[in-house]
């Protein structure tokens, strides 16, 4: 399903294309009609003065051919009409130049042909070739005046005098017309260029705001992680290799990481919206349990500010609904995150959910200082800060949440909290009541992976540590390599059960290494999983196209790592190779 931004951009591009087409058609048609009238008039006058049919009939044919360009611009591409116009003018000037001899004063039409070249051809090479060709033919016609190869028509002195002034009038008319449209087109292109420069300035300014505010949003949770870890490092007994860490501190670090991951997810989500690549994927799930678990997860973050999340679920909520769970989660998580950020200390956030008019209605109420009426719509713009209310900007969360709500046929609005200040963010969206999905086995049994060997290829030693801890927890032996070539050597030596390889490494990328592993008879059957810090859809498409068996995006979730290893290694033993991109 295309989103509103995509449709707006498509409509804008179509409007620009139609405007350009109409502009070209007007230019070509105007030049065609004026050239046809000029050819007809001059043909009649010259026939009257000279009586030569060889002047009259080609002039009438020329007039008709010029009018034919009207049909070409209407029923075919306008550019074909432009090219035909240039060709007809060039042939006519050269033909009558040879026919009428020096009296034709062909050089007067040189500016006209030059202007036409720049109006008709867009590529510099085409312009140069057309100019050179026109100049060469014109020089040949002028040389024919001195050294006649093709004899011109014999004209009387009186006819030559009249012809002299007719040519001046015709050349002035054609040069003036071409100059007018050339100047008009130049002004239009200049206007377009200025518009593009303004857009680039706005994009540059938006990028600066994006980098500044995203960095700011990451600094807060990063400060939590840094402060806690720095405290333990500085107070630890250097003689001991271990340190005792409080559960509360570990939870704080974990949720700070969740905050940072939300910021990154929002940034990626906004990029998808900008590119028009966001899609809807419906699945059935138990809404009440799901939203309860989501609120419980954010209860810890709320406790850091002495805030409690109160959940009120209506009795009319269906047991299972069919909706895009991922997008719904993004909406509610962003609302909860903003509410926790901007509510007052020692306050209550209330989450209500129910059905009304066949729509799911979810509201998140905080007890902050509220939002002024004239700013209620602006808070859904990227990176908006409320004076006197927010100590930090609302980032990308709210615009993403509203976009996703509207994408799913609903909307997200904000009103004042009538019970003591603050704001109420309300999501309304249609959902389909459905039956429970088929039961699946979600039990995690790390013991089934015991004894496996997994080769981890990454140039960052911190990633070695992270993967080693996760694999050790599953009872898996981790074999570490710093580069693709070293990984190839260790794979031949240890014959691992699976390979985790970073996509971006110095000298040789993960995709390039994949082809080398596939070319090795001893290693080609080993499941190959590419890992990247980039979660864009293009990267996943590249992974699929490369022939890798799986994909993981950093930060790697241990459950995802377990699932992909279980499916690729254990299931492959019984059902053959399985290809899964996560």
From TrEMBL:
Q: Which UniProt keywords apply?
A: Coiled coil, Kinase, Membrane, Phosphoprotein, Transferase, Transmembrane, Transmembrane helix
Q: Where are the transmembrane segments?
A: 27-48, 54-72, 84-100, 128-150, 162-183
Per its record, the protein catalyses: ATP + protein L-histidine = ADP + protein N-phospho-L-histidine
Top-level taxon in the UniProt lineage: Bacteria
Keyword Amino-acid biosynthesis annotated: no
According to the UniProt record, list the residues that bear 4-aspartylphosphate: 502
Which Gene3D superfamilies does the UniProt record give?
Answer: 1.10.287.130, 3.40.50.2300, Histidine kinase-like ATPase, C-terminal domain
Recall the GO molecular function terms of this protein's record. Answer: histidine phosphotransfer kinase activity; phosphorelay sensor kinase activity
Which InterPro entries does its entry note? CheY-like_superfamily (IPR011006), HATPase_C_sf (IPR036890), HATPase_dom (IPR003594), His_kinase_dom (IPR005467), HisK_dim/P_sf (IPR036097), Sig_transdc_His_kin-like_C (IPR004358), Sig_transdc_resp-reg_receiver (IPR001789)
Classification via SMART domains: HATPase_c (SM00387), REC (SM00448)
Going by the record, the broad EC class of this enzyme is: transferase
Q: Cross-referenced Pfam families, in alphabetical order? A: HATPase_c, Response_reg
Q: Which residues form the Response regulatory domain?
A: 453-569
Task: Outline the extent of the Histidine kinase domain.
Answer: 213-433
Query: Which EC number(s) does UniProt give?
Result: 2.7.13.3
**SUPFAM superfamilies, sorted:** ATPase domain of HSP90 chaperone/DNA topoisomerase II/histidine kinase (SSF55874), CheY-like (SSF52172), Homodimeric domain of signal transducing histidine kinase (SSF47384)
Q: Which residues form a coiled coil?
A: 186-213
Kindly list the GO CC terms recorded for this protein: plasma membrane
Question: Know the name of this protein?
Answer: histidine kinase
